[in-house]
């Protein structure tokens, strides 16, 4: 008879994870966290929240599209802006008509999103935790209280780069479109016939949108000459991985998505370069993309990439940092040539 992973004793769960490590060659703490990531996505997208949320980012590239060879630990989610501030948007569409209107929308999203998470998302996950009698704690946090942290009691440990916390990061200034439903499973599930694991069917943002959001973010970092915070190397890794995938030609040819991302960021994520000039997202999406950093930004990126590799988040052999930047330079040239 098949037994559910979370119904097993802690001793048996550890044995399952250790067996999974032996079969996959992947660290047990990453397999364990992957189970929790899928569990959270199932809790969300089996609820009424599925009509308002889209799953995107690196974890979607790994779990759904299967184009990146690294463990992606966080869950990036878009709450449809049309549902969050319908009174402000009206029938005018998802883009504000002016910079002042964009500012008004942004302030409204920042004000409402934390309450929406606390009143809608947190109770849904808490109810499933209680129903399955699981030991985990939820915490609302982040600089703007736009993140929900699920702290689980880890059975296994790594170096510390990947913590026993599933971070749900919410954005509320886009629609998440284009998107569609995809099935997904735990990485360890294929190696067991007598143990079942969580599975989910989230609404997933298109790979093209995730690519252009990551590419324009990397473009900003290069224009500013510095990296904001830590743990950014994964974006360059993901971009290079998409470029190696069969999806790349369609991704860089999808001009509608590229322009939509540029318009969206031009409204809601205005940034200035190292000289104080406003960064032109539209230029980045129409032939002037730059994603290969230099100077201090390059050095910081190299350090973060080394830290990422140290915790064995890669599946198989990882590119050296120099080879990663070479791949990104080739990507940059191809993306720019595609619209020349």
Keywords:
single chain, 340 residues, alpha+beta, 5-stranded mixed β-sheet, two-stranded parallel sheet, 13 helices, 11 strands
In words, what does this structure look like?
With 340 residues, the chain is an alpha+beta fold. It is 50% helix and 14% strand. The protein has helices at 10-24, 28-45, 58-63, 81-84, 86-89, 99-132, 207-224, 233-244, 248-253, 255-268, 281-285, 295-310, 321-337; strands at residues 3-4, 53-56, 75-80, 136-141, 147-152, 165-174, 179-181, 184-185, 195-196, 199-200, 203-205. Strand 4 and strand 5 form a beta hairpin. Helix 1 packs across helix 2 and helix 8 (233-244) packs across helix 13 (321-337). It starts with a strand and ends with a helix.
Give me a quick take on this structure:
The protein is built from 13 helices and eleven strands.
Overall radius of gyration: 20 Å
Order of secondary-structure elements: EHHEHEHHHEEEEEEEEHHHHHHH
- Beta-strand content: 5-15%
Helix-and-strand structural type: alpha+beta
Instruction: Sketch the major β-sheet.
Output: 5 strands, mixed
Shape: globular
Helix content: 40-55%
Low-confidence runs: none
| Count of strand segments | 11
- Neighbour order of strands in the largest sheet: 2-3-6-5-4
Distance between the termini: 60 Å
Number of helices: 13
Average predicted confidence as pLDDT:
91
């Amino acid at each position: 008879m098949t037994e559910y992973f979370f119904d097993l004793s802690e001793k048996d769960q550890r044995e399952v994870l250790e067996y999974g490590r032996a079969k996959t060659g992947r660290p047990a703490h990453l397999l364990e966290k992957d189970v929790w990531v899928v569990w959270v996505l199932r809790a969300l997208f089996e609820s009424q929240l599925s009509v308002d949320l889209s799953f995107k980012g690196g974890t979607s590239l790994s779990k759904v599209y299967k184009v990146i060879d690294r463990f992606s630990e966080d869950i990036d989610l878009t709450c449809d802006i049309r549902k969050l501030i319908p009174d402000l948007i009206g029938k005018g569409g998802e883009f504000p008509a002016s910079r002042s209107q964009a500012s008004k929308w942004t302030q409204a999203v920042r004000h409402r999103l934390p309450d929406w998470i606390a009143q809608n998302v947190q109770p849904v996950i808490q109810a499933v935790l209680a129903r399955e009698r699981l030991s985990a704690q939820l915490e609302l946090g982040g600089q703007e209280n736009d993140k929900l942290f699920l702290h689980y009691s880890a059975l296994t440990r790594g170096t510390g780069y990947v913590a026993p916390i599933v971070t749900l990061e919410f954005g509320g200034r886009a629609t998440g479109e284009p998107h569609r439903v995809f099935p997904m499973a735990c990485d360890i599930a294929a190696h067991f016939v007598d143990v079942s694991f969580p599975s989910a069917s989230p609404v997933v943002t298109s790979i093209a949108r995730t690519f252009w959001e990551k590419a324009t973010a990397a473009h900003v970092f290069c224009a500013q000459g510095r990296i904001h915070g830590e743990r950014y190397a994964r974006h360059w890794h993901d971009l290079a991985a998409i470029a190696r995938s069969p999806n790349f030609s369609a991704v860089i040819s999808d001009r509608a998505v590229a322009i939509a991302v540029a318009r969206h960021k031009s409204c809601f994520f205005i940034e200035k370069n190292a000289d104080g000039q406003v960064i032109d997202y539209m230029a980045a999406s129409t032939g002037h993309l730059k994603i290969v950093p230099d100077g201090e930004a390059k050095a910081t990126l190299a350090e973060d990439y080394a830290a990422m590799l140290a915790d064995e988040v890669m599946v198989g052999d990882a590119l050296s940092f120099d080879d990663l930047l070479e791949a990104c330079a080739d990507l940059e040239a191809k993306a720019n040539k595609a619209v020349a």
